[in-house]
Amino acid sequence: MAGQQAQNIQALLEAEKEAAKVVQQARQYRVQRLKDARSEAAKEIEAYKASKDQEFKAFEASHAGNTQTVQASIDKDTEVKQQEIRAQYEGNKEKVVQKLLDRVILVKPELHRNLKKLN
């Protein structure tokens, strides 16, 4: 009977060792699957980024011509308005200087309206 018990104990120990190996393999498999899933996700992210970058560059290229055209139009309008302002400046410069000189040179001394005459 003692021999039978020893064999049963030995069989249980071997079964426990086998179960520990199976659990260890399952853990390793799980860790490997997580690593694989992460690497696959990283690849998908990179592919998605690349496709979105291409879309953005295509959008940018298609609208770049519009931007340059609009900028040229704005520059032209600005130049026209600057020329108008310069022309008005040149035309009115002498009048403004003359008005300033008249105000400075032609002084009419008179009492202030708030000053009352003392009796």
UniProtKB/TrEMBL annotation:
It comes from the Eukaryota. Residues 12-54 form a coiled coil. GO terms for molecular function: ATP hydrolysis activity; proton-transporting ATPase activity, rotational mechanism. Keywords: Coiled coil, Hydrogen ion transport, Ion transport, Transport. One of its GO terms (cellular component) is vacuolar proton-transporting V-type ATPase, V1 domain. The keyword Zinc does not apply. V-ATPase is a heteromultimeric enzyme made up of two complexes: the ATP-hydrolytic V1 complex and the proton translocation V0 complex. NCBIfam families: V_ATP_synt_G. Belongs to the V-ATPase G subunit family. Subunit of the V1 complex of vacuolar(H+)-ATPase (V-ATPase), a multisubunit enzyme composed of a peripheral complex (V1) that hydrolyzes ATP and a membrane integral complex (V0) that translocates protons. V-ATPase is responsible for acidifying and maintaining the pH of intracellular compartments and in some cell types, is targeted to the plasma membrane, where it is responsible for acidifying the extracellular environment. This is V-type proton ATPase subunit G. It comes from Lentinus tigrinus ALCF2SS1-6.
